[in-house]
Amino acid sequence: MLVALAADVTSAGEGRMNLVYVGSLDDSVVRNPWAGIRGNDFMEAVLRQTLTSDPMAINDGYIFQSKGDWALLDIQKREESFLFKLASAGFLKVLCRTKNLEEMPERMSGVVDTHTALVQRSDFSEIKKAAYWFGDALLQHNAFASWPTIDIGYGFYLSCVAAYRMVRDTKSTDELGLTGVPRAMVLSAFRDLIRMFHENPTSIRGNLESKVIPKVIAETACQARVANKFKAVMMGFANELYHLNFAALLSAESHPDHGFAGIAVETRHSPLFMGLVDRGVLPAVAGGDRREAVQLDVPTKIAADKIDATLAFVTPGTGAFDAKAAFLRGEGALFAGDPDADRERSNHARALNGAIYDSFYGRRDEALVHPVNRVLEFTREYSGPLLELTEKLLSFVDIELYTGPGMDDAVEYGLTSIDVAAPSVVRRVGMAASPYPKAKARRRGARRSSLMSVGLSPEPCRRYREASLGTYRNFASRFLIDASELAEAPSDG
Q: What is residue 166's three-state secondary structure?
């Protein structure tokens, strides 16, 4: 499930929105799903952003490597494409190294395995034609966004060095979410990755996935359960680093005339990742206090004839847009510490939920639509085992559901349900007003992961960019960590 945070709405008083870099659509997340956290289904993530959040930004590669080819199939619909409609409405920006979208897979072929495989597909010529059309449409609608001007690998390297030291020096690795993963495996992976980057500073995340992780697993000859958890921990953390690194550089390089109040990032926040935020290595998310989540019911899939209904949520002047804008302004005010915002929070959420139900179900009364209520109405007509069993089953969806191998680092909230009245799936999404969700850890010292969208403070991002740039400039003559420190072999803890 998702614990989302309305972006850092310093824009609340100005009426401007943030641009949200959506990490859950990353093709690396598709290949390495975050355990226990839903949200990387392409349509589900796009709907979630469209109905409840600010305009979204995605990488060009996310389109070519989307789960189930959803985005590739979508852009082949040309003017009926969901992504085209969002781009033409100004809600979608695509980050591209060049303005020739169709060239991207061939440029990356031979460097990234997934793009090599894509170029070799029998239908690649059709894919390239659709990408050419979509790229031209993005250009016409000013929907391209510029790639960061400095190599993002150096900030990633900087964070990996800090993570190596953090894992090495932390007394209990449980608090870093490493329960069930030997400390020695994690340290070995970071050492190999850092050495590899020293030798050839390219494709650091790709090298972790394709070379380092398989090597460490082979050397330790660990059980499959441990190997899977190790890979999930390392790639989950690497993806988080990539997303925040990318968004921080975008924030630092943003110009005041780009039309957005600031940059936000949606990614998972694991204990290992938050450890670097807490230590000041990664640019901290903007302010906020611990608060309870407010619930929104968001479709995860909709029929083609319902796509146009979503456009009301990104079109100024509509009731749906106004309801979402009021909700986001309220969340932003709450996030900024306005004590009066809390009183109106549930009203704003109720109004946005009402707009969602009006748009997709033709009625505002959630009690009539929500499938749990229909199940309860049905079972109330009967007595005995059926009612008892149903109520027992339903009792489980109202509590926190721990999932994943460690049962302590992933959590789902609320309810996933099938709406019988309309062929859609509804996911209850918790919108929290803090980057630090109110949590009850299953064991003392353990921290849990959650998927959140958080606003980035510009000044820490600028400092982070300068640190990355300094690492790049001095890299040939001075590494951040020397060979003697990497040669250490601490005992497991």
A: helix
Whether the pLDDT of residue 396 is over 50: the answer is: no
Q: How far is CA 98 from the centre of its chain?
A: 24
CB 457 within 8 A of CB 265: no
The rounded distance, in Å, linking the Cα atoms of 186 and 168 is 9
Query: Three-state SS for 450?
Result: strand
Helix H or strand E encompassing 62: helix 60-64
Quick one: tokens of 95?
């980050």
Residue that the structure tokens 């049905």 belong to: 378
Tell me, letter by letter, the H, E, C secondary structure of 293-309.
Answer: CEEEEEEEECCHHHHHH
| Phi, psi of 4, deg, nearest 5 | -105, 160
What does the pLDDT look like over 131-148, one tens digit per residue?
999 999 999 999 988 888
**What does pTM read for this prediction?**
0.79
b/e string for 309-342 if b means 16 or more Cβ within 10 A?
A: bbbbbbeeeeebbbbbbebbbbbbbbbbeeeebe
DSSP labels for 381-420?
T--THHHHHHHHHHHGGGS-EE-STTSSSBEE-S-EEEET
The two structure tokens encoding residue 197: 């980057």
Span 26-45, pLDDT tens digits: 888 888 888 766 555 788 88
Q: How far apart are CA 51 and CA 318, in angstroms?
A: 13
